[in-house]
Amino acid sequence: MAPSTFKGSFSITHIGTATAIFEIDDIKLLTDPFFSPAGTSWDMGGGNFLKNTETPALGLENLPAIDAILLSHEDHPDNLDEIGRQLLHGRHPWETASVVLGGQKYEVTATPCQHLPGGECTGFILTKAEFGVSADGRPNAIYFTGDTVYIDELAKIPEKFHIVAAVMNLGSAFAAMPDGPLQITMDGKQAAHLFHTIKADYLVPMHYESWGHFTQFGKDLVGEFQEEGIIDNVRWLTPGKSVKIL
């Protein structure tokens, strides 16, 4: 059930990895476009190889009309491949841009991420006046983490926003580095910690299947979410199917 102060509808069609269609009222946003078939591989250098094991649930030819794209970073093919690049203004952390979609003004605020050293990555917070506000006057908002581990700076989010749904890129992905493996996306415990820190209403997991550099999958997440006491606040997605979140 949607929070009592939230005015609007929000559904997600998960396509694969971090690629999804966010249906917010009458507009559709596409996140991190990746459409390459199973078995496609990339040599990222430094001993890092990426290979997807599942074909995305939808292809470009199956997409509805898309109003805008939310791209967390463009330098990793599991978030933007050559096919997805056919669909393409960057944002710095905490910078807000306005865009009119479907006749309504949306505010898109970039959030910080910690992914691979030297790379650029961002998350997004979406708000509009029509979402309404929380009891204490903060704007209701939808949050997409992008690829990141937990960082303390994200604790600033609830100071300005009431997060009704937090869509999190998980999988506990690791990258080979000179000093040893480096964790570059959250695991279930970090996700639960972030969920509590930002005081979100619902958590929507994505980005935890189909890749060899992921170390935590769906059944592992279920166990950790149960241990952390948040399982009733989790909304699971089914690839290729529209799932109503709010």
Explain what you see.
- With 246 residues, the protein is mainly beta.
- The longest helix has 11 residues, at 188-198.
- It has helices at 157-160, 188-198, 218-227; strands at residues 10-16, 19-24, 27-31, 41-45, 48-51, 68-70, 96-101, 104-112, 122-127, 140-144, 162-169, 174-175, 182-183, 202-206, 242-244.
- The strands form 4 sheets. It has a 6-stranded mixed sheet.
- The N and C termini lie close together (6 Å).
- A hairpin with a 2-residue loop joins β7 and β8.
- The chain is built from 3 helices and 15 strands.
- The protein is globular, with a radius of gyration of 17 Å.
- Residues 84-88 have low confidence and may be disordered.
What is the helix tally?
A: 3
Distance between the termini: 6 Å
Write down the overall geometry: globular
Main sheet summary: 6 strands, mixed
Order of helices and strands: EEEEEEEEEEHEEEHEHE
Q: Give the beta-strand count.
A: 15
Question: In what order do the strands lie side by side in the largest sheet?
Answer: 7-8-9-10-11-14
Q: Quickly give the structural class.
A: mainly beta
Strand content: 25-35%
Mean pLDDT level: 90
C-alpha-based Rg, rounded: 17 Å
Helix coverage percent of residues?
10-25%
Low-pLDDT residue intervals, each spanning 5 or more residues: 84-88
